[in-house]
Write a structure and sequence with these properties.
Layout (H helix, E strand, L loop, with lengths): L2 H6 L21 E6 L3 H4 L6 H11 L1 H14 L4 E4 L5 H5 L8 H8 L23 E2 L13 H8 L3 E6 L2 H14 L3 E9 L4 H15 L2 E3 L1 H12 L10 E3 L5 E4 L2 E3 L8 E4 L9 E4 L3 E5 L2 E4 L3 H4 L10 H7 L21
Parallel strand pairs: 1-2, 1-4, 2-3, 4-5, 5-6, 7-13
Antiparallel strand pairs: 7-8, 9-10, 10-11, 12-13
Keywords: Hydrolase
Protein name: Isochorismatase-like domain-containing protein
């Protein structure tokens, strides 16, 4: 690597899956992470129940978590459970109640006190011996536990996330996972929040951009079934959903790569997009039954430059310059990193 390359690539970034056109959840590289499936969030009488019950009940979080966990076990996926727990030392010695707004809320409401009923797993979501119980997280990022070591040991590349709460631990952990190169999917009907606005903003605005896909538990299990049956290739007639779960259209044709054009899907124009769309095949991240998911939200898909076949020449332009050909990264100055 040249000095110039080192300057622009000092932080190693990896996309862990590393397989173009890998449309399913590889059974040997996918893990299901359930965050905070505990009584304080999910049970009547829990310390946070009055805040969370509106979404937990309307979305059906507990039943859908049960279904997701059962399906993951059937297909042999690791199930990781990431609860919270606080002791006197956390507050008296480390003053966590002064760190963030949510830490203050949890402190004042006596949430997740270690050894209490509230910090224990919901009775319908009890761990099995094959599950992995993570060390308790003290903030909103479950990667600040022993989670990274387990994922590396398991060879995980695809991380499926559900649990509590949408705009805090679920989002923070998924965002961190994506930054570290994991393929992140959120199971939207197995996630709750402390309010309906927080839930809606998370699943419709944030998750579709910080993750790779949002889907229901049924779709997740259908994708696992397709992977197990090697039925993951995109077909004409498949319904196309954006990463926000918005319907974009139906696949008219799947065009193979050639010397001049990258592989792509043709989706005829409709109410959302006023022209035929030529979606690069590598924008497809999952296939569940006859539904394919692309990693662009429906909300902005009309702004994508997909009005014609993706020419190989244009794709090279999208890659940007080689690091060795860049004089100064910001045009006039270089980063001021500390070596």
């Amino acid at each position: 690597m040249t000095k110039q390359s080192e300057k622009f690539n000092s932080t190693e970034v990896k996309y862990k899956p590393g397989r173009e056109h890998d449309f399913g959840f590889p059974l040997d590289r996918t893990a299901l992470l359930i965050i905070d499936p505990v009584n304080d969030f999910l049970s009547e009488g829990g310390a946070a129940w009055e805040m969370t019950k509106s979404t937990v009940q309307s979305v059906g979080v507990v039943e859908n978590l049960k279904q997701a966990i059962h399906g993951a076990r059937v297909y042999g996926l690791p199930v990781l459970l990431g609860p919270m727990a606080y002791t006197e030392e956390d507050y008296a010695d480390h003053h966590l109640q002064r760190r963030t707004g949510i830490n203050r809320v949890m402190f004042e409401h006596k949430m997740f006190l270690a050894g209490s009923w509230g910090a224990d797993f919901h009775p319908e979501l009890q761990p099995q011996h094959s599950d992995i119980i993570l060390r308790p997280h003290k903030g909103t990022d479950v990667f600040e536990t022993d989670l990274p070591g387990h994922l590396e040991r398991l060879g995980t590349t695809h991380l499926v996330i559900a649990g509590m709460t949408a705009n805090l631990c679920v989002e923070s952990t998924g965002r961190r996972a994506a930054e570290l190169g994991y393929d992140v999917t959120y199971l939207t009907n197995a996630i709750g929040a402390e309010s309906v606005p927080a839930y809606e903003a998370s699943i419709k605005v944030n998750f579709p951009l910080v993750g790779n896909a949002t889907m229901t538990v049924d779709e997740f299990l259908a994708a696992l079934q397709g992977t197990a049956g090697e039925g993951g290739s995109v077909q004409p007639g498949d319904k196309v959903l954006g990463s926000d779960h918005g319907e974009i259209g139906t696949v008219k044709e799947v065009v193979a790569a050639s010397a001049d054009v990258d592989a792509h899907l043709i989706v005829p124009r409709g109410l959302i997009v006023k022209h035929d769309m030529f979606i690069p095949l590598d924008a497809v991240v999952q296939r569940a039954g006859a539904t394919v998911f692309i990693n662009v939200p429906k909300l902005i898909v009309g702004n994508m430059p997909w009005s014609g076949p993706p020419a190989c020449r244009e794709r090279r332009e999208h890659l940007g310059p080689k690091a060795q050909d860049v004089d100064k990264v910001y045009g006039s100055v270089d980063p001021s990193g500390v070596s």
